[in-house]
Request: fold
Amino acid sequence: MSSYKVPGISEQKIIYPNLPVDWIVHLVKNGNVCEECGEIEMGLLPNACNAHTHGMERYNHLNFQLVLNYPKEEIMRILNTLGCMVRDGFRFEDGDLIEGIYLDCPVKLKRFNETDRSVLRVIVPDKYNRFPGENGCMVEYLIQLLETDDLYLEHLRKTTEGGLN
Reply:
């Protein structure tokens, strides 16, 4: 496990070059309209999303995932900041702490599966800087420890129904 600091941190905000990116961020979130079928997504647990990158492979690195239902702009800021760091030579692994995404606390990276591939999930502490799994962590932050499939209501229904037979 390593600890990293985002380059360009000031006391006011994180400053990272606004350079073009060559990866995408895929955001599955309740209320979003599917670009392919036009249906409105409503299949996730409350306070959950499945935001993840595609394209970190070109840097021989795992993609990133965030599952807290933050505003789109915040999700993009977090995932693109990590992507820029990888593009610029940083290498992350399971258990790493990243300082500078937020000024008052680090975020943690934890390996999870997302649609048959490994990703590094960004784990954000609660407002008291407690990570999920630590005593007193706010309940709404615990969803970050769920497997990706368990963020979806349909998967939970099937799992529960299957377990009752």
